[in-house]
Design a protein that fits this description.
alpha/beta; 4-stranded parallel sheet
Length: 267
């Protein structure tokens, strides 16, 4: 089967990664359903996978009604969807919560059993690391750094003098500022577009992350977590963490973060 990624050329996009993986990118000029339907018909698409917070039930229903495609939707905030398959691959996902949100014949795939993991994580899981080899702190606060708290976090934990692996992407809106800051400190390794995230996580003493998709990966590799919520769509993961005694902050706060770091170290 041939796979196409239909997307708009928005600022900070990572379309180059799609091309690097050998797939074709089709540039959409708008959010108009007519453009998407024309594309589906022209390329004789059999299945459409939607991963977009702004595409809703009405859009999906019209797409299904006007084409013969099988529709799969990725969801992580328990929204109403009109699809054949729904995937919520997060560790907190509960199938019962979709009971009245999807059609009766919809196939629901929920929870850690369906977590999407890159091959590097599956391979790294086999690598047994001794605790004495885990010396670094892993930090990831999202590829685009929309919350702009990386430097605040680094300042907060400076007193501990950790060696730090901080990962981000070239889509980071504050990358120049972050690079300038990190260059001042020998103990901070800044990784941009890293291909070794699984290894960095596996060799970490603990992680500071957002309660988002990366939490699935850190949990899979069984590393301690301190989570800091930075967006509304992280609510369910944050609640799951609180319920399961995983350290988490509703928002960044300097003293609270220091307190949680001490808790991990004593723990």
């Amino acid at each position: 089967s041939k796979i196409f990624f239909a997307t708009q050329e928005l600022k900070g996009n990572l379309n180059s990664k799609i091309l690097e993986s050998g797939h074709e990118v089709i540039s959409l000029l708008s959010n108009n359903i007519e453009e998407l339907i024309e594309l589906i018909n022209r390329l004789q698409i059999e299945m459409v996978i939607i991963d977009h917070y702004s595409i809703n039930y009405e859009f999906e229903k019209e797409l299904k009604d006007r084409t013969s495609v099988k529709l799969m939707v990725l969801d992580d905030t328990y929204e109403k969807h009109y699809c054949d398959v729904l995937l919520n691959h997060n560790i907190y996902a509960e199938e019962r919560r979709y009971k009245d949100l999807v059609p009766l014949n919809c196939e629901i795939k929920c929870g850690s059993k369906y977590t999407l993991l890159r091959t590097e994580f599956l391979n790294e899981k086999k690598n047994i690391v001794a605790d004495k080899e885990r010396n670094n702190i892993f930090i990831s606060i999202g590829g685009t750094d929309h919350s702009h708290i990386n430097i605040n976090i680094l300042e907060s934990i400076k007193e501990f003098n950790f060696t730090i692996d901080l990962v981000t992407t070239s889509a980071n809106q504050n990358l120049d500022e972050l690079q300038i800051y990190c260059e001042k400190y020998n103990n901070i390794n800044l990784h941009v577009n890293s291909q070794e995230i699984a290894r960095l996580i596996n060799y970490s003493k603990f992680t500071i992350i957002t309660p988002s998709v990366i939490a699935n990966e850190v949990t899979y590799l069984n590393r301690p977590i301190i989570a800091i919520q930075t967006a509304y769509n992280q609510d369910d993961m944050y609640k799951y963490f609180m319920k399961n005694n995983i350290l988490a902050l509703k928002k960044f706060e300097n003293k609270q973060l220091v307190k949680l770091v001490k808790e991990v170290l004593n723990g």
